[in-house]
Amino acid sequence: MEGYFRDDDGGASPDINTTPLIDVLLVLLVMLIVTIPVPLHSLSTALPSDSAAVPPKQPPVRLTLDADGTLFWNGERLDNADGLDLRLAQLAAQGEPPALYLRVHDAVRYGRTMTVMASIQRHGLHDVNLLTNP
């Protein structure tokens, strides 16, 4: 083993002690990090005041198509399509109409559902949510 660290002529092999070199490089790196100015970015914002509160939204309207095709508006039975059109027209006349939740029973025919959807679309109401059974 001793011959492994020696030169061919029997002298000690030259090696460089890198510990002081690493120490100097680390000191230079720390000095560089400390001397770099930290950029301070600021952004001016205008926060809203308490008087600019958003008015509460209206509760959503729940439309339900029962198994026999009967339509309910928030639990109240609508006898015909004119009742639905009248209520949708009143809803569309409001500044910001509430959301519509439409729940359709599985036994209802597709055409009946599309008739209700077309009536909603005809009155310009776009916030319609279809509810399903989990």
From TrEMBL:
Transmembrane region(s): 20-40
One cellular component term from this protein's GO annotations in UniProt: plasma membrane
Membrane-topology descriptor: Single-pass type II membrane protein
Pfam families associated with the record: ExbD (PF02472)
Highest rank taxon of the organism: Bacteria
A GO MF term: transmembrane transporter activity
Main location: membrane
Any one GO biological process: protein transport
Cell location: Cell inner membrane; Cell membrane
This protein's record includes keyword Transmembrane helix: yes
Signal peptide location: none
Alphabetical keyword list: Cell inner membrane, Cell membrane, Membrane, Protein transport, Transmembrane, Transmembrane helix, Transport
Free-text function comment from the UniProt entry: Involved in the TonB-dependent energy-dependent transport of various receptor-bound substrates.
Family to which this protein belongs: Belongs to the ExbD/TolR family.
Subunit structure: The accessory proteins ExbB and ExbD seem to form a complex with TonB.
Protein name: Biopolymer transporter ExbD
Provenance organism: Magnetospirillum aberrantis SpK
